[in-house]
Amino acid sequence: MISTFLDLYFKLGQILCYTPSYTKPKTTFLQILYSFILSTFLTVALGITISNRNFYGDYNYIKTAVSALLDFTLLTFNYSIILVVLCKEQQWKLLTGSIRTITTKYNKGRKYRYLIFVFVVAHCTGWLVIALSFKAFLEFYGMWYFKNYNIQYLQLGLLFSYNMFLCLIVALIWFMYKEVKVSLRKTLSDDVAKNVLYVVTNLDDSLCFLKDTVDVFNEIFAWPITLLIFHTNLQIINDSNSISVVKEELYEFTNSVIDNFPKFSVARFFEIRRSNLLNILGTVATFLIIMIQFHGKHDE
């Protein structure tokens, strides 16, 4: 099941140009041509949206610098994932081979089904959030927002899908590390002296295999991960100003609600509030107590 899912997902990645074929990761002329067309489209579309935004002319200097870096980072990220597929064919062969070994040697059907379920739900949820946020801004700002930010949302979708892809690969490697840990713990609980050579050899092979897999992973995804981290930091910086603006708007809204909150009064003598009602009840109770005491003394 996991092998079929990975094969389908790698085919989807081929359409978006961020993965090769799962079974035969080989660079072809059609793949190079398609990647060139996609990268050209992203570059031209980004240039058009920047032009529609008057080349950041409506922003202050800091906002201009952060926005330009965000656009440049997203475009560079798209270039990097395309180049990683085209220029690291040998590393992709090693990585896909390692993944097939992991899924075959450690056939944990239940865990893999759970992983696939979580991955699909998270992936669909992320794309849904991106689509709904774009729809909300589009309804608020109209076609102006579509002309200025349409390609940015497509790039954010690609960035999110690639991030999920990295999480999937890391989860598979993590599963094998857990299996090695379980195997080591089980072996230590038995009589190690009888098969110490076999245990050491088996663990040594597994750990060397995992180390080589992680090294290949780092070699392939070093630059994309770096750009992901850089883009996240820039996004936090870009949104930090928006947080203060939203805070000020919420503060004004709260004051407006307090000033215009309905107040009910009795012939304008006093307001009907919980404290006033409790004071009235307290006064009545005190009066009744005094009357009872006075009536008792009168009877004596």
From TrEMBL:
<dbReference type="GO" id="GO:0030425">
    <property type="term" value="C:dendrite"/>
</dbReference>
<feature type="transmembrane region" description="Helical">
    <location>
        <begin position="62"/>
        <end position="86"/>
    </location>
</feature>
<protein>
    <recommendedName>
        <fullName>Gustatory receptor</fullName>
    </recommendedName>
</protein>
<feature type="transmembrane region" description="Helical">
    <location>
        <begin position="277"/>
        <end position="296"/>
    </location>
</feature>
<feature type="transmembrane region" description="Helical">
    <location>
        <begin position="114"/>
        <end position="134"/>
    </location>
</feature>
<dbReference type="GO" id="GO:0008049">
    <property type="term" value="P:male courtship behavior"/>
</dbReference>
<keyword id="KW-0812">Transmembrane</keyword>
<feature type="transmembrane region" description="Helical">
    <location>
        <begin position="32"/>
        <end position="50"/>
    </location>
</feature>
<dbReference type="GO" id="GO:0007635">
    <property type="term" value="P:chemosensory behavior"/>
</dbReference>
<feature type="transmembrane region" description="Helical">
    <location>
        <begin position="154"/>
        <end position="177"/>
    </location>
</feature>
<keyword id="KW-0472">Membrane</keyword>
<keyword id="KW-1133">Transmembrane helix</keyword>
<dbReference type="GO" id="GO:0030424">
    <property type="term" value="C:axon"/>
</dbReference>
<dbReference type="GO" id="GO:0043025">
    <property type="term" value="C:neuronal cell body"/>
</dbReference>
